[in-house]
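Message: Just now I want nothing more than another pair of eyes on a protein record. I am handing you a single protein, as its sequence and its fold in token form. As I understand it, each token names a local backbone shape. Take your time, and here it is.
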Amino acid sequence: MSVSAGSGGRPRNLVLAAMIFAVAMTFIDQTIVSIAVPEIQRELGLSATGVQWAVNAYLMALAALFAFGGRLADTVGHRKMVVLGVLVFAGASAMCGLTPKGSLAEAWIVLFRVVQGAGGAIMFPAALGIVVQTFALRERGRALAVFFGIAGGLTAIGPILGGYLTQWTWRAIFWVNIPVAVVALVLIALAKPVTEHRPAPMDYRGLALIASGVGLSVFGFQQSQIWGWRNPGIGLCIAAGLLLLVAFVLVERRTASPLIKVDIFRIRAFAVENLVLGIAMLVFIPVFFFASEYAQIALGKTASQAGLYLLYFFLGFVVASQLGGRMLDRGGAKRPVTLGCALCAVGFALWAGKVTQLNFNSQIWYVVLAGAGMGFMLSPASTDAVSRASRLSYGEATGITQTVRNYAASLGLAILGTVLVSQFRSRVTASLIARGMPAGQASAEASGISQSQGGTGGTADIPDFIRLDFAYATRAVFYAMAGIMAVAAVVALFGLERGRQEEPEESAVPVPSEREDPR
């Protein structure tokens, strides 16, 4: 079978191009906002935690609603959900660009970042499900390597484009999504992808449980740097969120038509791939936020120069993702996933050792190595996990993997953000005391500086000792990332089995299905 029934006779490459443009906005927004963070913070007067929420609210909404989006795709229709997701995402992007200054700014931008995340959660599982149904299993690794590789390349454009757009106005980083959305809608209309779906009732109880669980647990970690770990509210939020997620699993096992068929985790490879993805995603999205701030605060780079800094990460990522896809098709997921995690760990460790030298040129090859490691593992792990599902559950399987990925990314940003702020505050306090400031005053001053991430003026106004202190705080974060990726490598090495998988069998009980009307 060279082309699945879902291709509808249309050229598969046109379908692939349409889906790449559809999800391009979600990939671009994972990095383009990070580049503009210092400028957004200065113009809108946001705290360090507030601006992290502007990044994290998007990821948290994706994590909370991806399972819902995957279920909608499988039950309502993949193409309908892609189109709806594109429209919601583009509309929310426009509103983010219209964020007013003043007291409403933080609530406004966080709200519409949540709506953006909702649009992405509806769109992405449906788009990936279309690609998976369009290509046969033995061609799927290469197709999804192209999918993730080009999407990753578009993500690489995000920092560069964001840097130049920010020199005009940071608001343009959101408005740029609108022409991308138009191109995506035109390509979808031309490709008219046809896929199979199965009408079923929606599990709103499960949706409420997973959304609340994800939201509360991430909120607890995110607020820890403001309230402090001694505040009982932090522990209560995290505990309540985790309990709700446990309740979600228990309820889903007893629900006739669940949001997520949790029994799919009995498939060892699916469970291990998701565990590896979850561990790796503690690093993958947060690195753009922290590297961008490091480049602009510690190195004194402009936003466009910071974009070029992140481009080196994606040079390694895009090339390695193509190699990883071919390795998946030839011999299965274990080798590229394990190799990728190990390379990424080494890259981050070497990168961390150089950041305090405040010399960009000494870091380049380690940035490339870290990106290459992530490229080797990300596409094969995601592809292999989704391919374990039956044809009628690709959207659901995608929803699960993306829920895991984005929940982990939200936690990673919150936890590593806490590490960054606490380390930065500690070092600035010590530096101020060394310069003769009383301990109490130094602590208060350091708390204010750490929440403004170096100050609210331009980067040229940041004292040299603050730059160095921020670099040391970044080093702690990058070493933590190296350790996280080393854990992922160990899990992949001992958890995954060698060899290629076979085409998954459908349920022994025939299930009525419908094909989307191509008209």
Residues 203-258 form one domain. The first strand starts at residue 196 and ends at 197. Strands lie at 196-197, 514-515.
